[in-house]
Amino acid sequence: MGMRIDVVEGGKIAVLALRANRLRTLLTTVGIGIGVCTLLAIVGIIQGLNASFAQQLSSLGGNSMYVTKFPWIMRGDFYKYRNRRELTPPLAEQLRELPEVSAVAPMTFKTDEVKFANVQLANVRVQGTTADFPSVAGWEVTSGRFLSGPENDNSSAVAVLGADVADGLFPTANPIGQSIRIGSRPFRVIGVLARKGKILGQNQDLAIQVPLRTFLAAFGSKRQLTIGVAATPGVDLLRAQDQVEIALRRARGVAPEKDSDFSINRPEQLANTYAQLTGALYGVALGVGLITLLVGGIGIMNVMLVSVRERTREIGVRRALGARRRTIVLQFLLEAAGVSAIGGTVGTLLGLGLAKVVSMATPLAAAVQPATIAGGIGFAAAVGLVFGIWPAFRAAQLDPVEALRYE
């Protein structure tokens, strides 16, 4: 009960002291505010990037893997990967036989110009693939339908448009059934894909899907092939990956003592690499923020020491009227914590604003978690408590008689 009274009394006096010295309170909060603002802005941008990257990776298919000649994350000798044999469509057909695999979609691409009437789009990603592509990569069709198996077998000149291609070529008309030109070759539109946005800087909606055999016949067969593989529902992705690797090694005649001459990539691997990168950025942000908060904390300590000296007579009067040492300690600790909390709150608001401005002015996303906001304010208050300990105890140790004589 006595401690509660001390806290309440100390808090009231601390508030009165902060109001009485508003300029000093304002200047003292600046250092803490800058530290919290810097820390929160950087952390907000990193958290926004993490959320955006996770969303982008989910568009690759949460239960899928991609077999490629070159690994997505390249470590070691480039020429080792360059000298690997190319992947071929028959390999994809062999993977369909695995019970751990539900869908297989070989794919390759090029960029080209696409035309309809007098409208022309440049740098469109034209991808040759098969009917399983939506199941592997998580695509949905919003209009018409996707490519069929017979259309690939017969090398049909049909195409499924990405959302941006459909909007660009047919802003008001229905694209289904229309004839477009990819380069100089005509294709009939049979479907439109749902919008997906960008992944790793590439606009997935500025793309066209055509049958793989049609693509190879029209644009050349010497293309690097990627084989997308979706695991059977209920089957662990790593188990499916092991079976895919065994099957491909057997099909390609890779000796047991040799490394695989292909790479199997999962979106999770990109996420792990990205987490390592952002972890390093978190460390830098934390270091910068802590240094700034340390400087701000030292500033609070110096100001509180000055405050103790200026209020020596006040402390003497309170001690002479029966105030206990712990009440004096609590008063100055609460005052220091209050100043820091104010600085932390202002810094939080500025940091949120700065992160928002950065996300609006640049491609960098920003998203601050509520726990980060609460943590920033709480940590700022904790800095005030830590750096207020010495001034608080120094005030409490003043001799009442000597303090009353102080002028």
Query: What is the mean predicted local confidence, pLDDT?
Result: 82
Shape: elongated
Strand content: 15-25%
Major sheet size, sense and barrel closure: 6 strands, mixed, barrel
Structure report:
This protein has 407 residues and is an alpha+beta fold. It folds into two domains: 2-56 and 271-405, no CATH class; 85-261, no CATH class. The chain is 57% helix and 17% strand. It has helices at 2-20, 22-58, 78-82, 89-95, 133-137, 149-153, 163-169, 212-219, 237-252, 267-310, 312-320, 325-361, 370-396, 400-405, and strands spanning 64-68, 101-116, 119-129, 141-144, 158-161, 179-182, 185-193, 198-199, 202-203, 207-211, 226-231, 263-265. The strands form two sheets. It has a six-stranded mixed beta barrel with strand order 2-3-10-5-7-6. It has a two-stranded antiparallel sheet with strand order 8-9. A hairpin with a 2-residue loop joins β2 and β3 (119-129). Mean pLDDT is 82; it is low at 1-7.
Task: Please write out the topology.
Elements: H1 2-20, H2 22-58, E1 64-68, H3 78-82, H4 89-95, E2 101-116, E3 119-129, H5 133-137, E4 141-144, H6 149-153, E5 158-161, H7 163-169, E6 179-182, E7 185-193, E8 198-199, E9 202-203, E10 207-211, H8 212-219, E11 226-231, H9 237-252, E12 263-265, H10 267-310, H11 312-320, H12 325-361, H13 370-396, H14 400-405
Parallel strand pairs: 3-10, 5-7
Antiparallel strand pairs: 1-11, 1-12, 2-3, 2-6, 2-11, 4-7, 5-10, 6-7, 8-9
